[in-house]
Amino acid sequence: MKPKRIVAALLVASFAGQMANACHIFVTVSCPKNGNSAANIMVCAVSTTITGQTPTCGLTDNTGFVDLFTPGPDTYMVCVDTNTLPANATLATHCQIVTCSDPGVSPTFDLSGDLCSTPPPPNAKCWLTGGGTIGNGKTPTFSYGGVVYPGCSPKAADGGNWNVIDHSTGLHFQGQHIIVDSCSGVSDKSPKVPVNIIDFHGEGRLFGVSGNTQGTIPVTFVGRAIDNGEPGHHKDQLFIQVVDPSTSNVVLQIGNSAADPATVSTGNLQIHISSCGK
User: Fold this and answer.
1) How far is CA 270 from CA 8, 13, 211, 235, in A?
2) Would 147 disulfide with which of 8, 46, 121, 221, CB 3.0-4.6 Å?
3) What is the pLDDT of residues 184-221, one digit of tens each?
4) Distance in angstroms (rounded) separating the CA atoms of residues 242 and 222
């Protein structure tokens, strides 16, 4: 995995025996350096193997994220409608071919233009990218991925977009309003940064996938990611606790606590330092 960039939301894994005819394509359209994006960008996916299939389309939220719920595992052409981009925004490429296996795959599209110009420095100087799985065996316990606070503005992409799928329960958590609380720890060399721990919290939503009929509910969450160098598998650590505020019940959790996080099995967690103001 490249040390300076990890694509958001690497959520590819298998739900054995559950709803084989379903596959999510988690698409992010945003500026690579500051995470800025816009709502109502149209993205569509269509099978490259089935002639005449009706495209699956959706509109991004204000973080540039959209979940395309496709008919099933297959190879898809995913395209962004350039007519729906923000003013003066362009894409290096507006189509990608992806192979979607249950429950999903996470392509990203890089924006450029006025939206991507550097705004004032943020209060928190570090940010996080990552994606992978936690747990051993054919089906992992969790898939995780996304970006936390991806920019130079405190409101860049509303703090990012962090996803977790709990394969044991068929629940998908999506953190949508994220705030970085602190950057701490020791220095790391890949990339070279003075900290290796990021603490964050926020709000989001939780809903069922792959056969789980749980409807969407609002949730709150806290998280900690620890970047222990490259490669991150079997070294980096993650803690996420998701709570239903209406009942105060924990509805999803990775790791025992911030002091005792889980070690990732595959993938990577990578902390970056903002270059804003330089």
Assistant:
1) 11, 20, 32, 12
2) 8
3) 888 766 556 788 999 999 999 999 987 889 899 999 99
4) 7
With a CB cutoff of 8 Å and minimum separation 6, the contacts of 217 are: 205, 206, 207, 244, 246
Class of domain 23-116: mainly beta
What are all long-range contacts of 214-218, with beta carbons under 8 Å and residues at least 24 apart?
Answer: 214/170, 214/171, 217/244, 217/246, 218/245
**Beta pairing partners, 87:** none
Rounded (5°) CA angle 4-225-230: 40
Contact (Cβ atoms closer than 8 angstroms) between residue 177 and residue 159: yes
Helix (H) / strand (E) containing 50: none
Alpha carbon dihedral 215, 129, 144, 217, in 10-degree steps, equals: -10
In terms of Cβ atoms closer than 10 Å to its own Cβ (0-12, 13-18, 19+), residue 230 is: middle
